[in-house]
């Protein structure tokens, strides 16, 4: 089934380095610097932050893509200026704020990855909740060869997907992972043929958007934090979140629908 997206209005329409569309409960946010392989400059970071903290209330899931032949080739080094240590810290923290707005924002985000997913592009992808990779996608962290270090949250997020050893290898040697190896190591949850990523991403976003909003919010906000807690503390937080979610009116209706056989059972897809 084809989904018809229409351009976003208001504040989101003015973000010139993003192309933002909506279709019902799903928003499509596209990095829009194809001539630069969607390399990230300060303006794009700021616009990502603005976008994700100002999503329309009717949006319940986002598909994030890149225009042109690549998802994102990383930091735009042509705009990299010499900074003091203090300035460098503040610059990195602007990235952290934008990535947190994606990971810990209001709605789940599905990234569709194709072509280069490199450096800052991988940092953006790792802040998303689901990642669909096309067969031609490839992953790299070339900061080690360029005399710099990741600053957009990659050291906190990427190892949670692939492990410290793999990230160490990528940064020290410049090793590039293809889509298959990235999938096997956990950089994506889905792997599809070239050209099929957007359709799969939209289908996943539609399914996610149909969930109870509080349930989605609990998965986004509580699950990663519980994983970082000692087990006893994590189990207590789990009890709190479980009770909160069960007490939601939408959750009660969904349970009644299942018991009354008005909802489908779990099926293998």
Walk me through the structure.
With 269 residues, the chain is an alpha/beta fold. It has 2 domains: 6-209, 2-enoyl-CoA Hydratase, Chain A, domain 1; 213-259, Lyase 2-enoyl-coa Hydratase, Chain  A, domain 2, CATH 1.10.12.10. The protein has 10 helices and 10 strands. The protein has helices at 42-53, 85-103, 120-127, 154-162, 164-173, 179-185, 197-209, 213-228, 231-246, 249-259, and strands at residues 6-7, 18-23, 26-31, 61-66, 109-113, 116-118, 130-134, 138-140, 177-178, 190-192. It has a 7-stranded mixed β-sheet with strand order 1-2-3-4-5-7-10, with helices on both faces. Strands 6-8-9 form a 3-stranded mixed β-sheet. The longest helix has 19 residues, at 85-103. The radius of gyration is 19 Å and the shape is globular. 39% of the residues are buried.
Core attributes:
single chain, 10 helices, Lyase 2-enoyl-coa Hydratase, Chain  A, domain 2, alpha/beta, three-stranded mixed β-sheet, 2 domains
- Stretches with pLDDT under 50, minimum 5 residues: none
How would you sum up the global shape?
Answer: globular
Number of DSSP strand runs: 10
Mind telling me the CATH superfamily name of the largest domain? 2-enoyl-CoA Hydratase, Chain A, domain 1
Brief overview:
With 269 residues, the protein is α/β, with parallel strands linked by helices. It has helices spanning 42-53, 85-103, 120-127, 154-162, 164-173, 179-185, 197-209, 213-228, 231-246, 249-259; strands spanning 6-7, 18-23, 26-31, 61-66, 109-113, 116-118, 130-134, 138-140, 177-178, 190-192.
């Amino acid at each position: 089934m084809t989904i018809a997206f229409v351009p976003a209005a208001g504040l989101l329409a003015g973000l010139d380095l993003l192309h933002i569309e909506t279709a019902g409960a799903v928003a499509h946010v596209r990095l829009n610097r194809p001539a630069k392989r969607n390399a990230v400059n300060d303006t794009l970071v700021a616009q990502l932050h603005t976008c994700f903290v100002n999503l329309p209330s009717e949006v319940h899931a986002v598909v994030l893509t890149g225009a042109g032949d690549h998802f994102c080739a990383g930091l735009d080094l042509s705009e990299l200026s010499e900074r003091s240590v203090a300035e460098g810290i503040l610059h990195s923290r602007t990235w952290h704020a934008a990535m947190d707005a994606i990971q810990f924002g209001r709605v789940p985000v599905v990234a569709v990855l194709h072509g280069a997913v490199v450096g800052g592009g991988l940092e953006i992808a790792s802040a998303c909740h689901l990642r669909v990779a096309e067969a031609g996608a490839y992953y790299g962290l070339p900061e080690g060869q360029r005399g710099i270090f990741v600053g957009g949250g990659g050291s906190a997020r990427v190892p949670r997907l692939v492990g410290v050893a793999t990230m160490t290898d990528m940064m020290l040697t410049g090793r590039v992972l293809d889509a298959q190896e990235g999938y096997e190591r956990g950089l994506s949850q889905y792997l599809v043929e070239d050209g099929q990523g957007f359709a799969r991403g939209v289908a996943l976003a539609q399914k996610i958007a149909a969930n109870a909003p509080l349930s989605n919010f609990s998965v986004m906000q509580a699950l990663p934090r519980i994983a970082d807690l000692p087990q006893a503390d994590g189990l207590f937080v789990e009890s709190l979140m479980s009770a909160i979610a069960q007490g939601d009116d939408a959750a009660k209706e969904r349970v009644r629908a299942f018991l009354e056989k008005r909802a489908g059972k779990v099926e293998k897809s």
